[in-house]
Design goal:
2 helices; 4-stranded mixed beta sheet
């Protein structure tokens, strides 16, 4: 979803190439383990976005496994290079 301030919210930027072209800073929900079939793996996204002109600028752990402490979901914000 491209918001008026050109912030793109998605969990797979490959699915919305037209919005990505107009976005100033994509904000993505990433998961260390694939939660959705066909979605990009977390380790693939930064490199793919770098190749399209974005750089990882902020990462925040938003959900953790209560027993292991491992991250389940991360919010990542990218900015244009």
């Amino acid at each position: 979803m491209l918001l008026p301030n050109k912030r793109l919210l998605t969990n797979d930027p490959r699915a919305v190439p037209a919005s990505l072209e107009r976005a100033s800073y994509p904000e993505l929900e990433l998961s260390p383990r694939r939660l959705y079939d066909g979605r990009a793996a977390m380790e693939d996204v930064p490199g793919w976005l770098h190749d399209t002109g974005f750089l990882l600028s902020l990462g925040e752990n938003v959900a953790s496994d209560g027993r292991s402490g491992r991250a389940l979901q991360i919010t990542a914000v990218f900015t244009r290079t």
